Each structure stands twice: as structure tokens, then as C-alpha cells.
Amino acid sequence: MTNDENLNAISQGIFTYIKKNVKKNDQKKILRYIEDRLRTPKRIAEVTTAIEMTTEEKNKVERFLNKEFGKEISVQFFVNPKILGGIKIKVGDILIDRSFSGTIDKLSDHLLGS
């Protein structure tokens, strides 16, 4: 069974359960909620640091991203020692690069006239 077939089977099971076990008025509310969630895709922020962030640091980054991009953002944290230090945040096409490696690359481009 492929992922799509598995997802379809799960969806059918959920809708069958709702139809059999939930009051008609509540069914409409549930379906409206599901439709709204499907229409507004959740934005994903990819946060990369050279070393693992503490829980406090992660919470601070999440608060910043929620403030800047809205509450409907999912934050994924990654560790990549190649960035040497600092932080990279990618949300869709937006890249905030405050990494040490990014700074070196920009300086190098500037000095070489690129």
C-alpha cells in the first residue's frame, strides 16, 4: 500500500466514524474545520545552528518566528556544524542567514567583486 493509499484509507475511516458517531450539527463543524486546515497550509520554518540549541533558545526562536510570521508556523530545528556558528532561518523563499559561514561567504564575494 502506497502512502497515498494509506492516507486515503485512514481518511475514509475517520469520515465513516464521524458519520456514524457524531451529531449532524457537529459533523458540519468538524468538516468545516478540516476544510479550513487544508486550505491554509502550515508554514514551516527550518532553523539551523552549528550546535544543538537549548530549550530556552529554541523557545526564544519560536516566539520570534510566531511574532514575525504568525501563529501558524511549524518550527524544525537542525544542527549543521558546517555553518561554524550563528543561525540560519528559512521560511519558504525567505532566508535569514546570520551564520558565520554565510558572513564569510558575503565578505569573500564583496572582496572578490562578485
Describe the structure.
- The protein has helices at residues 3-21, 24-39, 55-69, 100-112, and strands spanning 43-49, 73-79, 86-91, 94-99.
- With 114 residues, the chain is α+β, with helices and mostly antiparallel strands.
- The chain folds into 2 domains: 1-40, no CATH class; 42-114, Glutaredoxin, CATH 3.40.30.
- The protein has a 4-stranded mixed β-sheet with strand order 2-1-3-4.
- β3 (86-91) and β4 (94-99) form a beta hairpin.
- The longest helix has 19 residues, at 3-21.
- It starts with a helix and ends with a helix.
Which secondary-structure class do the elements indicate?
alpha+beta
Architecture of the largest domain, CATH level 2? Answer: 3-Layer(aba) Sandwich
Write the H/E string, N to C. HHEHEEEH
Rg (CA only): 21 Å
Q: Which strand-content bin applies to the residues?
A: 15-25%
Q: Which CATH top level class of the largest domain fits? A: Alpha Beta
Portion of residues within helices: 55-70%
| Major sheet characteristics | 4 strands, mixed
What is the CATH topology classification name of the largest domain?
Glutaredoxin
Shape: elongated
Domain unit count: 2
What are the segments in which pLDDT stays under 50 over at least 5 consecutive residues?
A: none
Question: What is the terminal separation in angstroms?
Answer: 51 Å
The number of strands is 4
Number of helices: 4
Which sequence of strands runs across the widest sheet? 2-1-3-4
Mean pLDDT: 84
